[in-house]
Amino acid sequence: MSLPNCPKCNSEYVYEDGILLVCPECAYEWDPNQAAEAEEGLVVLDSNGTRLADGDSVTIVKNLKVKGAPKDLKQGTRVKNIRLVEGDHNIDCKIDGFGAMKLKSEFVKKA
Ligand SMILES: [Zn+2]
Predict the structure, then answer these.
(1) How many CA atoms lie less than 13 Å away from 68 in the CB half-sphere?
(2) Residues surrounding ion ligand 1 at CB below 5 Å
(3) I need a surface site. Which of 14, 25, 36, 64 has the fewest CB within 10 A?
(4) pLDDT digits over 93-102, tens only?
Protein backbone atom coordinates (compact mmCIF):
# COMPACT_ATOMS: atom_id res chain seq x y z
CA MET A 1 0.00 0.00 0.00
CA SER A 2 1.50 3.34 -0.99
CA LEU A 3 1.17 6.42 1.18
CA PRO A 4 -0.29 9.67 -0.11
CA ASN A 5 1.84 12.74 -0.70
CA CYS A 6 1.97 15.39 2.00
CA PRO A 7 -1.16 17.60 1.68
CA LYS A 8 0.88 20.67 2.67
CA CYS A 9 4.07 20.48 0.62
CA ASN A 10 3.29 17.50 -1.66
CA SER A 11 6.38 15.62 -0.49
CA GLU A 12 6.55 11.91 -1.45
CA TYR A 13 8.58 10.97 1.62
CA VAL A 14 5.65 10.62 3.98
CA TYR A 15 5.92 7.86 6.60
CA GLU A 16 3.58 6.26 9.11
CA ASP A 17 3.85 6.96 12.82
CA GLY A 18 1.17 4.95 14.62
CA ILE A 19 -2.18 6.07 13.24
CA LEU A 20 -0.68 9.32 11.95
CA LEU A 21 1.17 10.09 8.75
CA VAL A 22 4.19 12.35 9.09
CA CYS A 23 5.97 14.49 6.50
CA PRO A 24 9.74 14.70 7.12
CA GLU A 25 10.10 17.79 4.93
CA CYS A 26 7.61 20.22 6.49
CA ALA A 27 6.95 18.26 9.74
CA TYR A 28 3.20 18.17 9.09
CA GLU A 29 1.33 15.32 10.85
CA TRP A 30 -2.19 14.20 10.03
CA ASP A 31 -4.67 11.37 10.48
CA PRO A 32 -5.23 9.75 7.06
CA ASN A 33 -8.67 8.47 8.09
CA GLN A 34 -9.90 12.01 8.71
CA ALA A 35 -8.40 13.21 5.44
CA ALA A 36 -10.24 10.46 3.57
CA GLU A 37 -13.55 11.52 5.06
CA ALA A 38 -13.03 15.16 4.15
CA GLU A 39 -12.23 14.19 0.58
CA GLU A 40 -15.44 12.21 0.27
CA GLY A 41 -17.48 15.38 0.80
CA LEU A 42 -21.22 15.60 0.64
CA VAL A 43 -22.87 12.57 -0.97
CA VAL A 44 -26.33 13.33 -2.34
CA LEU A 45 -28.18 10.61 -4.27
CA ASP A 46 -31.26 11.08 -6.44
CA SER A 47 -34.31 8.77 -6.53
CA ASN A 48 -32.38 6.29 -8.71
CA GLY A 49 -29.31 6.29 -6.49
CA THR A 50 -27.30 8.41 -8.94
CA ARG A 51 -24.86 10.76 -7.30
CA LEU A 52 -25.64 14.46 -7.81
CA ALA A 53 -23.16 17.32 -8.00
CA ASP A 54 -23.30 21.09 -7.75
CA GLY A 55 -24.52 22.60 -11.03
CA ASP A 56 -26.48 19.51 -12.15
CA SER A 57 -29.95 19.73 -13.66
CA VAL A 58 -32.63 17.49 -12.19
CA THR A 59 -36.27 16.64 -12.80
CA ILE A 60 -38.91 16.42 -10.07
CA VAL A 61 -40.28 12.84 -9.94
CA LYS A 62 -43.53 13.46 -8.05
CA ASN A 63 -45.92 16.32 -7.35
CA LEU A 64 -44.75 18.14 -4.25
CA LYS A 65 -46.63 20.49 -1.98
CA VAL A 66 -44.69 23.69 -1.40
CA LYS A 67 -45.21 25.53 1.86
CA GLY A 68 -46.59 29.00 1.22
CA ALA A 69 -46.93 28.49 -2.54
CA PRO A 70 -50.35 28.67 -4.24
CA LYS A 71 -49.67 25.58 -6.38
CA ASP A 72 -47.87 22.26 -6.21
CA LEU A 73 -44.50 21.65 -7.76
CA LYS A 74 -45.41 19.42 -10.71
CA GLN A 75 -43.80 16.11 -11.55
CA GLY A 76 -41.48 16.59 -14.53
CA THR A 77 -40.45 20.15 -13.59
CA ARG A 78 -36.87 20.79 -14.68
CA VAL A 79 -34.59 22.34 -12.08
CA LYS A 80 -31.31 23.76 -13.30
CA ASN A 81 -28.07 24.48 -11.53
CA ILE A 82 -28.72 22.81 -8.17
CA ARG A 83 -26.46 23.26 -5.18
CA LEU A 84 -25.92 20.48 -2.65
CA VAL A 85 -26.26 21.32 1.02
CA GLU A 86 -26.20 19.46 4.35
CA GLY A 87 -29.46 18.43 5.94
CA ASP A 88 -32.81 16.79 5.37
CA HIS A 89 -33.59 18.97 2.33
CA ASN A 90 -30.23 18.55 0.66
CA ILE A 91 -30.72 20.44 -2.61
CA ASP A 92 -30.72 24.21 -2.82
CA CYS A 93 -32.18 25.58 -6.05
CA LYS A 94 -34.27 28.19 -7.79
CA ILE A 95 -37.42 27.18 -9.62
CA ASP A 96 -39.31 29.38 -12.07
CA GLY A 97 -42.53 30.55 -10.46
CA PHE A 98 -41.41 29.46 -6.99
CA GLY A 99 -38.11 31.18 -6.40
CA ALA A 100 -35.35 29.90 -4.15
CA MET A 101 -36.20 26.71 -2.33
CA LYS A 102 -34.88 23.48 -0.91
CA LEU A 103 -35.71 19.99 -2.12
CA LYS A 104 -35.10 16.47 -0.90
CA SER A 105 -32.89 14.53 -3.30
CA GLU A 106 -35.19 11.48 -3.07
CA PHE A 107 -37.84 13.44 -5.02
CA VAL A 108 -35.66 14.26 -8.02
CA LYS A 109 -33.71 12.45 -10.69
CA LYS A 110 -30.69 13.61 -12.61
CA ALA A 111 -31.81 15.13 -15.93
ZN1 LIG B 1 5.10 18.22 3.91
Answers:
(1) 5
(2) 6, 8-9, 11, 23, 25-26, 28
(3) 36
(4) 999 889 999 9
